[in-house]
Amino acid sequence: MRGLPFALIVLLIAWPIEAKSEVPDLTGRWDCTPAHILIRGEWTMLTYTFEISEQREGLFKGTFDWSLPEDKAVQGEKVTGERSFEGEWTGFGVIGWDDLTVEIVTFKDLARHTGRLEDADTLRFVHSKIGDDAWVSRSTCRRQN
Length: 145
Fold this sequence. Notes:
This protein has one helix at 3-14; strands at 28-32, 35-39, 42-56, 59-67, 78-79, 82-83, 86-95, 101-106, 111-119, 122-129, 135-144. By secondary structure, the chain is mostly beta strands. It starts with a helix and ends with a strand.
């Protein structure tokens, strides 16, 4: 019987204890490294920044400014009814239960941005949109202090 309490102590010490993590705060301005983008079958570069203005628990919202180089002649989304080389959209996001996965969807244009928080100030995304204006890209974004 004397061995049982010792075995129980060893088991309790060895048992993994899951610490309650805090949902990361993503508010602030994020600048993203220019990234290759394939839009409607054409290659170009995507540059964008975003500002997360409000976060509650794991949900957030913000605005996103994007641009494409005019010298490539590949225009992006329709802005005021016409295709454009730049624009702004509103996005809503969620931080996954693992406190690392980030998903952003855009209001109106059906784009999806799935990412991972690499550290407190670095997010890496895979981007996609379906339909007539389909596009794919991936990017790395860093929070500005």
